[in-house]
Amino acid sequence: MAVLNQAPVPTVDPSQPNTLRWDDIGLVLILDFITEAEEAAMIEAFHAQDPLGEEKARAAKRRISQHYGYHFDYTTFGASETHFTPVPSYIASFLPRLPIQSYLPDQFTVQYYPPGSGIPPHVDTHSMFGEALYSLSFGSAVPMQFRMSGPTDARKMRMPKRSLQSGDAGPSTPSFKPSSVETAPSQGPDGRVGKEEKKEWEEGEKQTPPAWELVLPARSLLLMTGPSRFGYTHAIRPRKTDIIDGKTVQRQGRYSITMRTVRRGSEIGCDCAYPGVCDARIREEMARGEGDVGPNR
Ligand SMILES: O=C(O)CCC(=O)C(=O)O
Ligand SMILES: [Fe+2]
What we know:
Blueprint: E1 5-6, E2 19-22, E3 27-30, H1 36-49, H2 53-60, E4 64-73, E5 78-85, H3 89-92, E6 107-113, E7 119-122, E8 133-138, E9 142-148, H4 151-157, H5 195-206, E10 212-216, E11 221-224, H6 226-230, E12 232-236, E13 241-244, E14 247-250, E15 254-260, H7 279-287
Parallel strand pairs: 1-10
Antiparallel strand pairs: 2-3, 3-11, 4-5, 4-6, 6-15, 7-12, 8-11, 8-15, 9-10, 9-12, 13-14
The protein binds 2-oxoglutaric acid (AKG) and fe (ii) ion.
Fe (ii) ion binds at residues 122, 124, 169, 180, 234.
């Protein structure tokens, strides 16, 4: 089993012992963001919405998703005012506790990861979503892998799109997927990671600067801004076991809520410091007709 580098040491303000910060990369992890009672209610609500989902996800060894809030409008390339799925109260109730209140997420993806499954390395779309990207974890802990993106990621973003499962790293169209940049395919249809995929994970983990893993405990809230949001890939390696606090533990079913703020009108776009993995830059390259680029065709 690959043992990855540990996450860099966080800064903790003694007055806020549950808030771990990596200020240089804009990453924050808030422990015990929700209570156990809230967690139990969320799990129940998720399954009530899709009673057969868990069984199907376990059989297929693939994660499943539920979408709430604003959908994406491909004609205006912005938030659709007509396609809106009401946000369940179990989500709405914790929004006033989010650390950034100047703008709040309005697009929510609730996912269930059956034991052993993961999500390939990707950067969530820059141009379509605001800077703050949240992930609330519940059900069980899982290590999330972070890696500064590099030339390989940039090259892959410009290659024809391989299929996304669940479409949960953002919206997609057949012609252009402005959403995530999946730099490696997910498990095969039987849930196993094929040889090729395994190689891609291993290569990614060998890159410099090196990939590292941060354990996201159940009930914790992750906030990505700045470099961790725009320049790093994040991923969950499909694995049967993880090493957590020095112990080998069996991967359990995990849930997460990814929360994004859909950009509107003149806010759409991006001029970040990471053009290699920036969908706005790739779109500009395409418009200029530079080479055979085209993310996700
Ligand atoms: O499950 C998670 O915590 C992250 C999911 C994710 O990266 C995404 O939906 O884009
Ligand atoms: Fe993501």
